[in-house]
Amino acid sequence: MNISFLMHDELLVEEFIKTNKLPRESVGVYGMLESLIGSMGQHTDVLIASDKYFNYEGLCEFTEVMNGINNKLKRFLLLSNRHDPELNAAMLKESLAGGWTIVRPGHSNVLIVKLLSGYIFGKKDRTVNPINHTIQFIGSTPNIGTTIAAFGTAAHMAMKTSQSVVYLCLNLKSSKIHRYLGVDEPQNTLESMRAELKSMSLTPERLRQNAWKIREQPNLDVIFGNMFREQAEFYSLNDIDCLLQVAAQTYDYCIVDTNAYWDNAATIAAMMGAGTRLMVTTGQLAHFQEDVNRWLLPLAPVFGHSPRSFDLLITQKEGSSNNSYSSREICRETGMHRIGQLHKLKEIDSLLNQGKLWEAISRPSLLSGDLSQVAKTIFSLFGESTMQLSSDRRTWRQAMTSLLKPIDRRFSYERQ
Q: I want to staple 239 with a disulfide (CB 3.0 to 4.6 A). Which of 21, 119, 197, 375 is the partner?
């Protein structure tokens, strides 16, 4: 099979050759349209092109030329965001009508190669499987409880199943989950894996070694986030894609907390790779209207997603408050569907400052009940029932304590 590339991205071409173990003589790389057309013929089986070489009229003309040269040619067009939205939409429709298979913008090179390999060679990869258990939590606004919602949902999902769950803190600019869990100086954080992410050599075993273990819930792991805000921009789409793919191979469910900062690789990569996307907002008009309209509505379509591909999780609900809008009004304004709501716990700030997030989300309360319902809803969306679970909702620590002899209860099970 002979493959021609029309692009300047040498790293992508090298990754494609290495992944598919292709002989280099079977691959041609062209930096100009003229040289590509001059060398094209019946011997070329596959063409992979970047849309950066075309405007709308040029794409139409090029498609006709390619059809005249070889109507059996498999063609793949890598779309970018270099055009304005109206022209992007026109080029998308033209390429589809002209027989191109398209790869939408926003993917890292690693994922682009895997997508192309699947199309061309029939190679299937778990990361592009339609059954996707990666769940992104993204806030409309900072400091509205996105981390509490994400970690709490992960915890209650772990409580409801024997399968493995990981909470990934990808809040690159303001990670505080370690503080909330009472870990002042975490030994392993996202930085601990940066070299392996850059070299794409991260393994499931290494990821588990970097996870902090929840003793009360042994099937729940935590990956602490970036500790240095000024280094947030050092992480690339490839880095985060590598992390998400390895996490999906390692754990049954991946909860990804990207908070409310969208201008970094973590938020974009998670948006592209997640099977479920939850927009966390409150009943305050400035949060669900102003903030969502300012960044989510224009950003999501750029990466091939409709805002309707997000579901709403409404936080800071207060039973008798007249200062916030109803869930129905929020859904109507955003065009999204509500997946759940979280009541405000009055003492939550004090508990977070004491490093007692686990206690806050696991003890009986309105918040804990709400989180349990969100977890149950997510399982239902995946078509998975929790009926097989025991009605005994005790934590692992409580169950073990009940089995100890009275004299043994002097031993403490404090987290390391």
A: 197
